């Protein structure tokens, strides 16, 4: 069934009013299952980055696996500005805004609406701070998701480890297509392959993991498969045709709203896409921005999300998104 992955910037209290907390690491995960006929269910999955804005990486990587946004606004400040321009750069065109002013603060809804429009989020809607009402709205969005018809699959890996009696396991997000039990798995940057011995979604054994699912893959490797390359930000796919691997790149930057800084030769930036957060240094700025990466990047040819360019010293830290040549 369908999955709606939502990036939520706000309090644990509000997130818990919408869905049940299921996991807590650098990103808290909250799940609500909307039961359908025949025991099937669709899923609302809320991702809430911990310690943002002090720790930006979980926020930016969560953008790369999210299709919808929710912002709880306590006050209008630079953090709010960074959040909305980052959402816009990531291509998250639909979302909800909750006005919940901090004590001693006042949030002007007309100012917020104007800033959303300037950032490129004019389709976002205001909603009351009511968990049931928010959940009902999210179910409406969930029910509008069309069945997946993409060929093959791409999985962005979040973590990998070895389990005694099971073997090598990777946990990640299905970014496109669907993965079947016993499918062949190709790891970007590695020779050899693997077979999906079993699949788990929400702690249930399944035969198929669909786009949007957070899936656990138990794998049996074959040939010179580089297990050391399997980890956060790595890419599993059904074919080498789904991606390219680059140690040098060139791209044009679609600059984020409110971003006044320009990139220059020698600048250090990060590419953020498909859970990757890779550092690189700009070697040339001409018609294109040329970059040398510290570690090879994987560009997902099937991705419907924008690859983000982040500069941690800038304000806001989101520079925009890259259009690769």
Description:
This protein has 5 helices and 21 strands. With 325 residues, it is an alpha+beta fold. It is globular and about 60 Å long. The longest helix has 13 residues, at 78-90. The mean pLDDT is 95. Helices cover 16% and strands 46% of the residues. The chain has 3 domains: 3-143, 3-Layer(aba) Sandwich (Rossmann fold); 153-238, Translation factors (Elongation Factor Tu (Ef-tu), domain 3); 244-324, Translation factors (Elongation Factor Tu (Ef-tu), domain 3, Beta Barrel). It has helices at 12-18, 57-63, 78-90, 109-119, 131-143, and strands at 3-9, 20-24, 27-35, 41-49, 68-73, 95-99, 125-126, 153-163, 167-180, 184-187, 193-201, 204-206, 208-210, 214-222, 235-237, 243-255, 268-273, 276-285, 289-300, 308-310, 318-324.
């Amino acid at each position: 069934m369908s999955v709606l992955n939502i990036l939520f910037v706000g309090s644990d209290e509000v997130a818990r009013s919408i869905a049940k907390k299921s996991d807590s690491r650098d990103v808290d995960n909250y799940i609500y299952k909307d039961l359908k006929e025949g025991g099937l269910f669709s899923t609302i999955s809320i991702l809430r980055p911990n310690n943002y804005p002090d720790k930006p990486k979980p926020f930016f990587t969560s953008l790369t696996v999210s299709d919808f946004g929710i912002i709880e606004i306590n006050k209008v400040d630079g953090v709010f500005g960074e959040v909305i321009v980052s959402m816009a750069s990531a291509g998250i065109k639909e979302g909800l805004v909750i006005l919940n002013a901090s004590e001693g603060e006042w949030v002007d809804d007309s100012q917020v609406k104007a800033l959303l429009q300037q950032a490129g989020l004019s389709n976002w809607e205001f909603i009351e701070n009511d968990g049931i009402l928010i959940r009902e709205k999210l179910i409406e969005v969930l029910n509008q998701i069309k069945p997946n018809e993409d060929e093959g699959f791409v999985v962005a890996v979040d973590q990998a480890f070895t389990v005694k009696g099971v073997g090598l396991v990777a946990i990640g997000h299905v970014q496109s297509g669907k993965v079947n039990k016993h499918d062949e798995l190709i790891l970007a940057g590695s020779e050899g392959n693997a077979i999906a011995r079993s699949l788990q979604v929400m702690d249930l054994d399944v035969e198929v993991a669909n786009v949007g699912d957070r899936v656990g893959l138990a794998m049996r490797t074959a040939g010179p498969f580089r297990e050391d390359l399997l980890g956060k930000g790595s890419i599993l796919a059904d074919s080498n045709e789904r991606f390219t691997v680059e140690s040098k790149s060139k791209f044009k930057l679609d600059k984020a709203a409110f971003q006044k800084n320009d990139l220059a030769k020698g600048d250090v930036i990060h590419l953020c896409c498909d859970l990757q957060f890779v550092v690189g240094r700009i070697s040339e700025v001409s018609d294109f921005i040329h970059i040398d990466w510290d570690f090879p990047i994987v560009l997902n040819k099937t991705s419907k999300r924008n690859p983000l360019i982040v500069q941690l010293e800038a304000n806001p830290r989101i520079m925009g998104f890259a259009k690769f040549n």
